[in-house]
């Protein structure tokens, strides 16, 4: 590890706290756990303090899943209190989403840092295009598909979200709106999806990275305990403000904000691959 001065430590802590505030706000606003913000920020911070490139992206993704659980829970209960969550959809995914998560954590140990960043950038860009170019006529149906299609999609949702270190909102929002559900209900339900993803993902990343010598101090497998401890309190505090903002904005404004946000994330990771 490289030596870090007290001032550098203070600056790094300040950036992590700021990332926690942003991720918490986004958890409420978009029904996500904030991973799309935390992962690129953590990736950069871990590079500054000398974490090996071979595990840097893995630690960023895994630590993000550890933070997603409390922010998703708080967002979920806040949205549920407003009656906006599709409980039937969540119950149907209780098995299938975690199944995809388990497969992803098992595979993640064998994927390179560049591979994880490429996955993150491509999926974020595709979803951003969907949000920004959205038309009301873009529909795959007027009702969500039944099984086995719904079960398969739930597993794919869990798989891709875990490899990105996100709570599934970026994918589930698109899925639900393409089948005629309102953006507000999609956002609310996505907070529950984040809960289904974060629990098995955190456990899986701990197991997948256990004993790796390149990991930074205070790591449980790929999950860094210091990062989780710093991000959770701030994220929990600001999440309700994001929920209030989500219910105050129109559907189209939510889609535009969401799309611009995803483009910025995709550009950041795409640039890092050059």
TrEMBL record:
Main location, first listed in the record? membrane
- Chain segments annotated as transmembrane: 12-43, 93-111, 116-133, 153-175, 187-208, 220-242, 254-271
Where found? Cell membrane; Membrane
Tell me which InterPro entries the record gives.
TM_pro_TauE-like
Q: Which Pfam families match?
A: TauE
Name the keywords, alphabetized. Cell membrane, Membrane, Transmembrane, Transmembrane helix
Its GO CC terms? plasma membrane
Q: How does it sit in the membrane?
A: Multi-pass membrane protein
UniProt similarity note: Belongs to the 4-toluene sulfonate uptake permease (TSUP) (TC 2.A.102) family.
Q: What is the protein's name according to its record?
A: Probable membrane transporter protein
What is the originating organism of this protein? Answer: Methylobrevis albus
């Amino acid at each position: 590890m490289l030596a870090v001065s007290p001032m550098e430590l203070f600056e790094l802590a300040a950036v992590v706290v700021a990332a926690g505030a942003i991720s918490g706000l986004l958890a409420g606003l978009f029904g996500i756990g904030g991973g799309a913000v935390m992962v690129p920020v953590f990736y950069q911070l871990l590079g500054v303090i000398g974490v090996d490139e071979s595990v840097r992206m893995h630690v960023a993704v895994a630590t993000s899943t550890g933070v997603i659980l409390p922010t998703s829970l708080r967002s979920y209960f806040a949205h549920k209190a407003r009656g906006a969550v599709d409980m039937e959809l969540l119950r149907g995914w209780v098995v299938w989403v975690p199944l995809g998560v388990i497969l992803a954590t098992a595979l993640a140990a064998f994927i390179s840092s560049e591979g994880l960043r490429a996955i993150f950038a491509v999926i974020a860009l595709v979803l951003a295009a969907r949000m920004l170019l959205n038309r009301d006529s873009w529909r795959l149906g007027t009702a969500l598909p039944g099984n086995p299609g719904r079960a398969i999609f739930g597993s794919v949702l869990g798989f891709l979200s875990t490899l990105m270190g996100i709570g599934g909102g970026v994918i589930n929002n698109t899925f639900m709106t393409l089948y005629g559900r309102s953006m507000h209900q999609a956002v609310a339900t996505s907070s529950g999806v984040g809960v289904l993803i974060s629990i098995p993902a955190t456990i899986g990343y701990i197991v997948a990275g256990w004993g790796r010598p390149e990991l930074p101090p205070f790591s449980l497998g790929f999950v860094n305990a210091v990062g989780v401890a710093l991000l959770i309190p701030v994220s929990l505090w600001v999440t309700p403000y994001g929920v209030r903002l989500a219910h105050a904005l129109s559907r189209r404004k939510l889609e535009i904000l969401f799309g611009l946000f995803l483009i910025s994330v995709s550009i950041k990771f795409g640039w890092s691959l050059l």
